[in-house]
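ok here's KDO2-lipid IV(A) lauroyltransferase, seq below lol
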Amino acid sequence: MANQSRRKRRPAVLAFKDRLARVLMHLVSRLPLSWIHRLGAAAGLLAAHWPNRQRRNALLNLALCLPDLTPDEQIRLRDRNLREFGKTYFEIAYLWLRPAEQALSLVREVRGAELLKREPGRGLIVLSPHLGAWELAGLYLAAQGPTAIFYKPQTYLDDMIRAARARSGAELAPITAKGIRVLVQSLERGDYVGILPDQEPKADKGAVFAPFFGIPAFTMLLVNRLARRTGAPVIFMFAERLARDAGFRIHCIRAPEGIDSEDDVEAATALNRGIEQCVMTCPEQYLWPYKRFRRRPDGAPKIYTGALGDDSAFAVVERVRHAG
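and the structure came out like this:
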């Protein structure tokens, strides 16, 4: 009976959370961006000083991926990262709900813009890691020409997200076989295709373990498959948040060689190497709290475990390194 009661309450709880999130998003979106960033930085500052999983996971990832930093430097970078993490999520309301032209006016500079030029009848695969303002990167890409964006349907705010991402003309392709067909057709027409490349795939097929900052990461092969099937070139693009609320800088970077290799591990390694290059441009703005190494090779120790304190995180890192 208790389980049945909880199941009955679940839709109502989800609906309430969705309505509350919408109200908060609309309220935040009306604020000046400088205020939004201050609110986000304040939330991140609290997260940096209050034990929680996001704080622990960010430090675990940083300690594993950037071992040349001292523990104190890793902690300081983690704390800066959480402030930027707060800015990222608070500014999403502004980027989703303000007019597209107003959001795009925040772009102050585009580096490597020539890489966005397409050859006639040949599409372009554009990879945007979870770095800086990735929602602005997607909006900017769609403003350059016909675009299909690979999209994961969400539990909350799904229609708001779809409307925000489509308002400059992008077609949203769900993460399904049908969505992949949309991506292929778009590339064959000579359009852009936008993909977030640094999330852990759910399915066993279409992914392999490849090094990401030297740590095995379960990595998608979709980019490789699309590039090989259509002959479309691949680039990376992200929106770096500038200091003192000065707007954003778009970076376009050519993908490393091998991303279209017939060898799956070579292709996935090239993909991750491109993400690394993007991340090191502004490492404090990457999504370090994300559990990128949740799935581990057989026999490898789990990473996102243990107490929430910094000492515990460093102890986990030592166990992982010792296990090889």
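fwiw The domain at 107-323 is CATH 3.40.1130 (Glycerol-3-phosphate (1)-acyltransferase). kinda neat tbh
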